Amino acid sequence: MRYVAADTTKQISRIGLGTWQFGSREWGYGTEYVKRAEQIVRRALEVGVTLFDTAELYSFGNSERILGAALGDDRERVFLATKIFPVLPTAPVVQQRAVASAGRLGVRSLDLYQVHQPNPVVRDRTTMRGMRVLQDIGLVKQVGVSNYSLKRWRMAEAWLGRPVLSNQVSYSIAHRRAEDDLLPYAEQHGRLVIAYSPLSQGFVSGRYDAKHPPSGAVRRANPLFLPENLERGAHLLATLREVADAHQVTPSQIALAYVLRNPSVVAIPGASSVEQVERNAEAADLDLTDDEYAALNRAAREFTPVTGLAAVPGLIRARRR
């Protein structure tokens, strides 16, 4: 496992573990997945994962409880990140919710406390005032944001008056918007981009094509899995397979290696099994050649999926199936 160079007291693994699935029925894993969560977490620790990401929104706090219980006595040695869902993120609310998350996780302090989404009405001034108090009393070590534009990320830092360590955004070889400005900013200023959905919910795995779309409500709601987009992504998936064959690994592992090419990026893929945790962790040690990276980059640039309003009719048809 490799670790990122960050100004933190604890090591942050380049590959972390995202725990949206813990306790969430929408992924379709069933109750047995909750029972496997402890095995997944314990194996993640064994292979060197130190970054664990959750949120109060995930299964209405159950993800935090499940993760905290699974970590047990190791809670204090890992880099534990959670998020506040900013329905009304005024300073007092931010402070109250942080206390609640720490209680569910069973920790004395949160290593990283993130604003889950930018609130369109409440300005970050009051939110960051609450975060600053949490840092001053030691309940929160580092502050982060999620799904923020670069402009709003920088504004949040200005209101906090301190570094906002990270911005957690969707970033994968199939969704590269973060490369435009967030990654350069993070690299220049010693910040982190935390890549959620780095495997595009399995789109880059090569398991699906236009004739074999995925099942499950979450993926059916993702425009990437429309038959037209699966066809458009054929060249990208073929390139991932070609590079994967050269390294004797899976396309998913190459997709993770792609996002980790930038030293300011860490990735938090989820996992439905112990084996998946192991494969994800192995990707942190993969080194792509310059030619391989260039080939992947070209294939990614050529992939233009149907998105936005144009994707709505296809999504409606998918729901009816």
Detailed description of the structure:
By secondary structure, this protein is α/β, with parallel strands linked by helices. It has helices spanning 31-46, 62-71, 91-105, 124-136, 150-160, 182-189, 217-220, 227-232, 234-247, 251-259, 274-283, 290-302, 312-320, and strands at 17-18, 51-53, 79-84, 110-115, 140-146, 166-170, 192-196, 265-267. The model has no long low-confidence stretch (mean pLDDT 91). The chain is 43% helix and 12% strand. Strands 1-2-3-4-5-6-7-8 form an eight-stranded parallel sheet. The longest helix is centred in the N-terminal third of the chain and has 16 residues, at 31-46. Helix 1 runs parallel beside helix 11, helix 4 (124-136) packs across helix 5 and helix 9 crosses helix 10.
Look at the structure and give the mean pLDDT. 91
SSE string = EHEHEHEHEHEHEHHHHEHHH
CA-atom Rg in angstroms: 19 Å
CATH-scheme architecture of the domain at 17-202 and 250-286: Alpha-Beta Barrel
Q: CATH superfamily assignment of the domain at 17-202 and 250-286?
A: NADP-dependent oxidoreductase domain
The span between the termini is 42 Å
Fraction of residues in helix? 40-55%
**Total number of β-strand segments?**
8
**Biggest sheet: strands side by side, in what order?**
1-2-3-4-5-6-7-8
Low-confidence stretches: none
- From the helix content, strand content and strand pairing, which structural class follows? alpha/beta
**Broad shape:** globular
Under the CATH scheme, which class of the domain at 17-202 and 250-286?
Alpha Beta
Total number of helices: 13
CATH topology descriptor of the domain at 17-202 and 250-286: TIM Barrel
Give the percentage of residues in beta strands: 5-15%
Major sheet attributes: 8 strands, parallel
